[in-house]
Amino acid sequence: MTAASTTIDTSAGTLAASRGSHDAHPPGANYLTTALTTGRRSILQFFRTPQLLMQGTIQGPLFLLMFRYVFGGAIRTGGALTYVNWMVPYVNWMVPGFLTTVILWTGMGGAAGVAEDSSSGVYDRLRSLPIPRSAVMMGRSFADVTLVAWGVLVTGAVGFAVGFRVEGSIGGFLLGLVLILVSGYAFSWVFITMGLVSGNAQAAQGLSMLVIPFSFVSSANVPVQSMPGWMQPFAANQPVSVIINAVRCLMQGGPEVVGGGIGHSTAYWVVLSLVWSAAILVVFSFLATRRFSRTI
To answer: What is the dihedral of CA 277, 281, 283, 284, to 10 degrees?
Structure first.
């Protein structure tokens, strides 16, 4: 009788332990694994959606060619403009600006991709898994900055083909590219937030068009001093202009070489652009993570 009771008790204990192990919440992936996995998924999705790759490949070079050959002849340099002292050819002034605005043109497609994933239920399934929710958005931002890097590479190659030359050092040119990618990573969170709040890809595409003024009302294509007086404060101090000025100074050897009314030192523009990038990253990564956690 005692042996039988012991056997029953032991079996019951084993069954309870087994049941407890099945009922326990399975451990999930850590933060880095989640971010890398979701980022890899998004990159593979880019390759399965040729339109996204084509947008990053064609859009920047297309605008670059338009401004180089359609509008470039009407923008006189070499001291012809009384309000600015040009020191470099227009193509050398223009290309760093276009390389920077690739951040915006490529990011617009990222907003639509996030909205599509949100509306299709992909994010609902990811939220149900035992993984850090913020890591999902982190992975998306990794993928988006990869797409930005591709757009910068293609646009830069076209820029050299149409006459762009580095007036500064190779190290300065490379630092300019790094600054573009750092800023592109910060801005990717802006477009992720837009995609999450839009509801669908079409609405996200329309909402992301709000960034267009930051591209054209900037120092990307013409000096700020050539704009109407009431527009200059916004054009000179908005973040895209600040980043463009920093990239332009790094690639062309400083404001004294660039001319164009940039003013200040290279260090000033680089530090200010990093401050802007950090502020954008902190604000929009917080908003995107909060919004993703609320998405059902």
So the answer is: 120
